[in-house]
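REQUEST ID: PR-0412
SUBMITTED BY: lab tech R.K.
PRIORITY: routine
TASK: structure prediction, single protein chain
INPUT:
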Amino acid sequence: MTSLPPQPLSPLDGRYKSAVTGLADYLSEAGLNRARVEVEVEWLIALTDRSLFGSKPLSDGDKAKLRALYQDFGQAEIDWLAEREAITRHDVKAVEYLVRDRLEQLGLGAIAELTHFACTSEDINSTAYALTVQRAVSRVWLPKLRTVTELLADLAQKHRDAPMLAHTHGQPATPTTMGKEIGVFAWRLQRVIRQIESTEYLAKFSGATGTWSAHLSAEPGVDWPAVSGAFIRSLGIDFNPVTTQIESHDWQVELYDRARHAGGILHNLATDVWTYISMGYFTQIPVAGATGSSTMPHKINPIRFENAEANLEIAGGLFATLAQTLVTSRLQRDLTDSTTQRNIGVAFGHSLLALDNLQRGLGEISLSQTALDADLDSNWEVLAEAIQTVVRAEIVAGRSKISDPYALLKDLTRGRRVGAPELAEFVRGLDIGEAAKDRLLALTPATYVGLASRVVDEL
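STATUS: complete
OUTPUT:
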């Protein structure tokens, strides 16, 4: 058997590439290297702006040419770095050589020795990861999460008044509305989104073991922590001044735990909507030309929610592993974080794919109020809660002598179906005031939804 032509090993780079392509601009190897070049270039500009070691500030034209190294970063640079890393066996060193090479080409060789000045690889890496993760989250992943959350909020508003039998423990329970139940997911996600939006994206820039030793050796008169902090903040990220050789990754642990939490909520949504579809509460809108089953032509399978469920489980597992691994580094540095961080894009990729499936799936369902009404009308016994609560209030008010209202309703309804006529007859025979009887007799399962519609307004 002959070998296949080169193929993507991951479905994120094959079957599902179009759904996650935006992340590759930031969380791919090329995206990371582009950010590394950006950090190297901006650090060189920051040093010359301060006229350190006899250098002079670069002209605006020279700065623009230098910044073009990362702004126009493309296939030529990707190939150059691949060839050089095959020799250096060190990815960050290859980036340094790329910048030096381009400085010579630009006629700026006189400042080449300021490239990577006093930096350890993790100064560049921690800054590059902070930049790429921040941009991937804020520009690609988080907007998609917001889109799905807003779609849920819209569906909650649309169905705010659609009465529905609740199912606690899988059993008929006090009615609610479909809008309120969908609104719960939107509310939960909004809260986690606010936490994710507050993420600190931290970088260190303090040398081999976080002490600025090399910096001070070269120029003792400079406040290097202040210089480093100002430089990192100028890039739009946050500075961590107290580190070992690496930035401690705690911000990443926090972010991935929150992303996993959001995924757990979305997983709950996917399984609930799947269940509502199986119960007939939602019908699926046929897509022209689509096949539900290879042998059963009638079927429309809820594949969007099933795919979302599976991809959220993969993403959640990866986020958990990232958080667990990155929180620890032996002594002043070990390399377990290096290969681990290369999977950040995989984790966000599966999460983004799940979000894409949820967005599509939620747009392909329609509420069946007929099914909801039929279920409500078959479960009048759920009004037992209302009846026994009203009886208790009547006892306190002195309008009833019933001794144990809960037991009374339990005997009537537990484990059995009670229809409207039986319940009405039962209410009429209760020892309670006439006004209370009238309120209870006016209730139906469809109207016993309390403030469910009002709860939606909290969104």
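NOTES: The chain has a mean pLDDT of 94.
REVIEWED BY: pending
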